[in-house]
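With this grant's support, the team has encoded backbone shapes as discrete tokens. A representative record is reproduced below.
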Amino acid sequence: MVRPALLAVSHGTSDVDGARSIAALVARVAERLPDVDVREGFVDVQQPDAASALAGLDGPVVIVPLLLSQGFHVHHDLHGIVAQRPDAVVTDPLGPDPLLAEVLATRLDGIRHPDAPIVLAVAGSRDERSVPDAEGMAALLRARTGRRVDLGYLAARHPDLPTALAAAPDAVVATYLLGRGFFFDLAVRHAGDRLITGPLLDDLLPERGIPDALVDLVVARYETAHSA
């Protein structure tokens, strides 16, 4: 029996490295699922947009949001485009999840000051549903590292990253973003001379690559929805 297609939908970015790392993640997922038609779509900036990508797929489709929290893009954009497609479903976003805490902890292991407090730099959203997801991710990272973890938002919510850093002068910054782009550049500017980790999919250094945990997470979202 033919398995449902997997449509991996990310936000989209004009940053070349950020776009490349998302595409690399989708390619790794396709390698892991050789019997599944894996496609890529976007809610902004890049093409194809999610609606067009879905329209180009016949039969059952599982949409996996390559997004880190609930919010407008998940509930309005993605659930909106499946409203007239009874054979399509939208999974939970990627976060919060213990696998993301593992990737964040690995990034933190690579910088100095292993016992320093952590400020988790989160994109932020006006959608209230994003708040418990951000707080849940901070709690998972706190449990994983045994260290103080505060939130610092890059947009829409408080405390913003500069305020969070002012309250924790000895903290390092853990980047809770999938790839490079506007928000990562903003986090770097706000961090100043603080130590800051790369994004979750930061594969620019040769010793890194797309983390297996991220591939595992996307595949798990698909398999859970497919078996439901």
